[in-house]
UniProtKB/TrEMBL annotation:
Organism: Streptomyces spongiae
Keyword terms, alphabetized: Cell membrane, Membrane, Transmembrane, Transmembrane helix, Transport
Signal peptide: none
Lineage: Bacteria, Bacillati, Actinomycetota, Actinomycetes, Kitasatosporales
Membrane-spanning ranges: 46-72, 84-105, 117-140, 146-163, 170-193, 199-220, 249-278, 284-304, 311-331, 337-361, 373-395, 401-425
Name listed for the protein in its UniProt record: MFS transporter
Membrane topology per record: Multi-pass membrane protein
Length: 434
């Protein structure tokens, strides 16, 4: 069935953006000769869902180690500070990957980025399953971060490519939900399998290798084309967006960054809080808490998808701030219920910040810069998500888990409030779907 062609865009050099008032320059947009034709996607809707599966499969690995850290701590004898460093090497790999993968994906296509990323994820599974040193855990986390950096740029852009211009809202929703659902499924699988089956630090990674193998098949069959006229510039650079979309990127980061930092804290130090402070040592409990956190992140996105972007982002900032208030209550009252409530609110905050940010970028960034734009959003989110939990981990070693968690929560609550105020101040320049 032949694809229908969309109408050619009007000259961007002659018109101002209807919501930002910015008059695009030739530097912001590709030349007429370089601008590829945009086609309506003929792929069936089920392929849009299938295109999101590799994102889910890799994100299952991203947090599968969460309930297992207490076992490695016991066997290898490392501190909470070292634990957060192991976690942070995932952020290091992810950020390094984002400097390259978004640009490479926009130039060479989605598959040349996704297939090596899946191979690296499979290698990480093997290293995790055979790890006997902290160095091995660091390498496995580093490989995992690189793979995740590839899928949050190329993988999420592939979902948008398969969906086509007419299904951008669905693409943003599925790409975002694939990420948070996979991130929650990983610790749940690890918690259940490690608690009920032999070889607690091995079984989950064997299961994950099967999931990644199916993701490889999905990528090989995915109906995406190589770019016909990619943008120019350096191959490795800090990812960014065209000038007219920078404000929208900043609005997304203002809410997404505190949200994902909150969930990163729960993933890195949540099991330690449950085991050391609250007395809950069952790994199914810590895995289920992480799963519930990301299930909240997934469900809230379906619940708010029809709302205005300003409302989504503001609600995300409020949810993250409330999560930190509840975290302070949890550590001072030694309350498992309050800690779970904090995790659910953190998940909702990340989910709404992520959906709002991706929706803004999908609606304002041209397709040949979309993977780079997704990378830019995630760089802005993962930098504080790597730094603040590590700081909290070493602070907890020095002054105690209660004081360390309280200090972290106070700082992050302030950042979430500032993010909400930034959204409220910039709402007049925020494009809304018709």
């Amino acid at each position: 069935m032949p694809e229908s062609r969309t109408a050619p865009p009007e000259s961007v050099a002659a018109q101002e953006h209807p919501t930002t008032g910015h008059r695009p320059t030739l530097r912001d947009q590709p030349t007429a000769a370089a601008r590829p034709e945009r086609r309506a996607s003929s792929a069936p809707t089920w392929w849009v869902w299938a295109a999101a599966w590799p994102v889910t499969a890799v994100f299952v690995l991203s947090n599968a180690a969460t309930p297992l850290y207490v076992l490695w701590q016991r066997d290898l004898g490392f501190s909470k500070g070292t634990l957060t460093v192991v976690f942070a090497f995932y952020i290091v790999g992810l950020l390094g990957s984002l400097l390259v993968c978004g640009v490479v994906s926009d130039r060479l296509g989605r598959k040349p980025v996704l297939l090596p990323a899946l191979a690296l994820a499979l290698a990480a599974c093997v290293i995790f399953a055979t790890a006997t040193t902290v160095a091995a855990l660091i390498v496995a986390r580093l490989f995992t971060g690189i793979a995740v950096g590839a899928v949050v740029s190329a993988g999420m852009a592939a979902v948008t490519d398969v969906a086509g211009p007419q299904r951008k809202r669905l693409a943003a929703l599925l790409a975002s939900c694939a990420m948070v659902f996979g991130a929650g499924l990983g610790p749940l699988l690890a918690g259940v399998l490690s608690q009920t089956l032999p070889a607690p630090t091995v079984t989950v990674f064997i299961v994950e290798m099967v999931l990644l193998a199916t993701a490889v098949l999905a990528v090989l069959r995915m109906p995406v084309r190589r770019p016909t006229a990619p943008a120019k510039g350096a191959w490795m650079r800090v990812p960014g967006v065209p000038h007219g979309s920078r404000r929208h990127l900043a609005l997304g980061i203002a809410v997404f960054a505190p949200g994902i930092t909150a969930t990163s804290f729960v993933l890195s130090l949540g099991p330690s809080l449950l085991a050391g402070l609250l007395g809950a040592t069952n790994r199914i409990v810590s895995g289920a808490m992480a799963f519930a956190m990301f299930l909240a992140a997934t469900g809230v996105q379906f619940a708010v998808q029809r709302m205005r972007r300003r409302t989504i982002l503001t609600a995300g900032a409020v949810s993250t701030a409330l999560s930190m208030v509840t975290l302070i209550v949890a550590v001072h009252a030694s309350s498992v219920a309050a800690l779970v409530a904090s995790a659910l609110l953190a998940g909702a905050g990340q989910g709404m910040g992520q959906l709002g940010g991706l929706s803004l970028l999908n609606s304002t960034v041209c397709p040949q810069r979309l993977a780079e734009a997704n990378a830019a959003l995630n760089v802005g989110g993962y930098v504080p998500a790597g730094l603040l939990p590590v700081t909290a981990g070493y602070l907890s070693d020095a002054v105690g888990l209660t004081a360390g968690a309280t200090g972290f929560a106070t700082v992050l609550m302030s950042l979430a409030v500032i993010g909400g105020l930034v959204v409220l101040a910039g709402h007049r320049r925020m494009p809304e779907p018709s």
